[in-house]
Amino acid sequence: MDDNVAIQCEDVSFSYPNGVQAIHNVSLTIYKGDYIAFVGQNGSGKTTLVKHFNGLLKPTQGQVLVFGEATKSKRVSQLSRKVGYVFQNPDDMLFCTSVTDEIAYGPRMLKMDAEEVKAKVESIIIELGLSEYRDTHPFALSLGDRQRLAVACALSLDPQVFVFDEPTTGQDYFGSQSIMNLIDQLHQKGKTVIIITHDMPIVAEHAKRVVVMNKGQVALEGTPEEVFTQIDKLQSLSLKAPQVTMLARELGLQGTTILHVPEMVDWLTNNYLPAIEPAAGEMSL
Amino acid sequence: MEEKFTAFHPNEITMQTLVEFQHVSYSYSKTSTPAIEDVSFSIKAGEFVALIGPSGAGKSTLCYCFNGCIPQLFGGSMSGNLHIAGCDPFNDSIPILAQHVGLVVQNARTQLFNVTVIQEVAFGCENLGLPREEISQRVAQALEIVGLSGFEDREPTALSGGQQQRLAIACVLAMNPEILVLDEPTSELDPIGAEQVMKLIARLNQDLGKTIVLVTHDMDFVANYTSRVLLLNDHHLIKDDVPGKIFSDFELLLKARIRPPQVCEVTHSLQSRGYSFNSLPITLNETLQVLRGMHHG
Fold first, then answer.
1. Which residues 64-93 of A are in CB contact (within 8 Å) with B?
2. Which ipTM value was assigned to this complex?
């Protein structure tokens, strides 16, 4: 097994007990330090697939290897030390009566030493800027802070891989930026990061790799540049590339794919728009 | 509850004005800071208005002022003058207001509780005490408008997110209000579902003449669909203007922590590099046209 591999899906299929097959023969390798965005319509299998990464679901066919070990024989509690999962709705995973207890819950369940738990919780509280809320009831926090708390809970077990299911849904721009900065930092520290999102500018501006799911299969996979170049294919999957990407393409830019506003502005001023004529005063010189 | 409330005399309202807020302030009970403070604006019949602002600015609070839930259900203290479609949201009963204002709350799926789609849509009309014949007629019509004909016997909770959102819209449509207030109707939806809901709302505005108030964080939708923006920040209405003016005022956007559509960021950067625009484009198609025009000189 390659040492650089974090998660390996080998011909994974999954059917729910009611017989609905949600995943069809997916083979995919996620490397340590990857920053992957899973995109696709609701019902395309994104959440079902990523729930295999920490053993919440087990494949009905094929296998998922987490750091070389098949998930089939592992409990979620064993896998949770390796793969942290942050639910789309933080309220689905918060149930303690204070922020401190909520963060300490995982380590306590894994029977970590009490002093160690205390030190760990304290350092996470400070890292995530939750120090004024130590004794606050989680449901008294704003959505943005509940989302941070959910991340804190995942951090408490110090996993190598983090899965975020729609981390910015329902947040305003400021809240989204703050969560994405947090996720970027995890990536910069060498963690493997997996996000599910519908927000294409977020994919273009943050992720290093994109997996497009459709009808339980991987429809498209590559760097954001590679994926967003295929505007027509994306449209057939009912997805839209970021506005600047579409703008550049419609204006006739070929060969490169623009993903960010500054790149777009540079291309427009250098290659597309007429040079600005100097003001009259300067011309007389 | 403090009562500083006075309804308008009907003569003061022109035919066209459907909604009038004058110096409206409201505080929830047991809070000292107001959720909205000194908010004044009016809306004419047939307008499509976006209500935007960062989380916690007071957008949802403002929505509840439209149908009397504030202050009648939520208590608290309110002041100012308020007039909604000929009603006084302070004194007229909520069932009366419900026939003028349809409010689709945030996370609309949480307001679905019946066993079948048809019962869900009929619920509001039943509470208005309408005759059975009229109820079935209105329910059928509402389901057709939102594209859910044929779903009558389905279970609301088994529908997709987009279908649930359209069902929630059908529920208020059946009460035949002239104003629809929608609080983040697309935030939980995937791109297809969100687009379908937005197209439905646009149709309700254009074809049925409904007056729309839309709360959203999606600035592309604001640019593409609405004709006017109310910007709330820190419990105050800080701007009331057309989308083009809002999205070109970068100082204002920064203050209210709003990211405009990407094309507006592009034109803004071009302006700072010395390019000038007669009128700023805010949608992808408008921007394409303007840039092509500049390219060809």
1. none
2. 0.84
